[in-house]
Amino acid sequence: MGITKRGLILGSTAFASATVVIVGTGLHWANGQAFTESPKELVDEVWQLIDHEYVDSSFNSLDWDEVRTKYLNQNYTDQEEAYTAVREMLEQLEDPYTRFMDPQEFSNMQIDTSGELTGVGIQISQEEDTKKIVVVSPIEQTPAYEAGLLSGDVITSIDGESTEGMELSDAVNLIRGPVDSTVKLSVLREEKPLDFELTRARIEIHPVRYSVKTGPEGTVGYIRLTQFSANAAAEMRDAIKALEARDVTGYVLDLRSNPGGLLFASIDISQMWIDEGTIVSTVDRNGTSEEEVSSHQALTDKPLVVIVDGGSASASEILSGALQDNNRAVLVGTQTFGKGLVQSVRGLADGSGVAVTIAKYLTPSGRDINKLGIEPNFTVELTDDQRDALAADREKIATPDDPQYAKAVEVLSDTIRGQRQSASAAQ
């Protein structure tokens, strides 16, 4: 199966603020109106998508034909009954990333890829085992970020409504709302209850921020990448070119709490750092592997250190795994999230949609990091006090008061010093 990388998503979770590219909208038009299938046709359409594309040809050891027979032998009086049947059908795959979205949920996924959204600026997921609604990460310079919500916060209620037993999509819909309206989130952080009243806003998301910082061996180019949205590669290219013009001696790339995004963005950004070598390979249900290889488009060969943590997922892991395996960068921080699966998102005839896991990906050395993550070269754990201090004062991030950043600069400086000594010895 050929995989068109521009139609694939790698987000670690279903996000309250995700940016995705939709593959094959599946809309049929008649006289200017969208043609809506019958409920039973919808069920069969989803079954067919899974049958043709799902990454596991055993369908989690299910008799997939028997599943089709069971659900097509039922009668459905409306679309809602069909939606319930489809969700039941997909749940049997036990894959949290393969999921059905009703028209509202599907619309929520189609947030403008220009990077603008309306909400509070948090990315949330639902734990597979406990079903708890958890903050993956707040987006920088948003109401959630400024209020102090943190990765790992468990949302227990939204405007007083308990999230126990709540579907992720329902939580997303409750959190979203008109600009300037408010929403109250109650969370548990390390078993401590906290309340946040947030004012919703229109948010322009710029996934890349950069600056020049001082280091022991000269100036350092610091780049913070918060997500792999459609504009991430262009902004990364601009950042590297601007920092090269400032003649920095090396780079620190911060991927902490970056939950992923678009596959093509991770590949394009990898090309900017890796001049030669494999970036990633994807393997489909038939064992067919497609390899993405760097094509001599690197913008710099200066030393690079990457900071990662448990919130660095999927597309972040493709980039960091490629840099690590090609010996292009040293990784500092903590073990990454561990999502090595690729989804395509398909629109269905009635405006609903389905995300289907169609492949797994491997790092250049052949590592399958799904549920394992990537171990950094230098592990730097933050204490609760250190994490709270950085959350309380975001200006401390990427300063000597940030232990992971401080270690990254130390490792970068050692690398620069070593290169200089080798160059002197060669003369």
TrEMBL record:
Instruction: Give the matching Pfam families.
Output: PDZ_6, Peptidase_S41
Reaction catalysis annotation: The enzyme shows specific recognition of a C-terminal tripeptide, Xaa-Yaa-Zaa, in which Xaa is preferably Ala or Leu, Yaa is preferably Ala or Tyr, and Zaa is preferably Ala, but then cleaves at a variable distance from the C-terminus. A typical cleavage is -Ala-Ala-|-Arg-Ala-Ala-Lys-Glu-Asn-Tyr-Ala-Leu-Ala-Ala
What InterPro entries does this protein's entry cite?
ClpP/crotonase-like_dom_sf, Cterm_S41_CtpC, PDZ, PDZ_6, PDZ_sf, Peptidase_S41A, Tail-specific_protease
Q: Which residues form the PDZ domain?
A: 106-176
Q: Which GO biological-process labels does this protein carry?
A: proteolysis; signal transduction
**Where does it live in the cell?**
Cellular thylakoid lumen
Superkingdom, according to UniProt?
A: Bacteria
Q: Does the keyword Plastid apply?
A: no
> Which family does this protein fall into?
Belongs to the peptidase S41A family.
What is this protein identified as? Carboxyl-terminal-processing protease
Per the UniProt record, the source organism is: Phormidesmis priestleyi
Tell me the classification of the organism that encodes this protein: Bacteria, Bacillati, Cyanobacteriota, Cyanophyceae, Leptolyngbyales
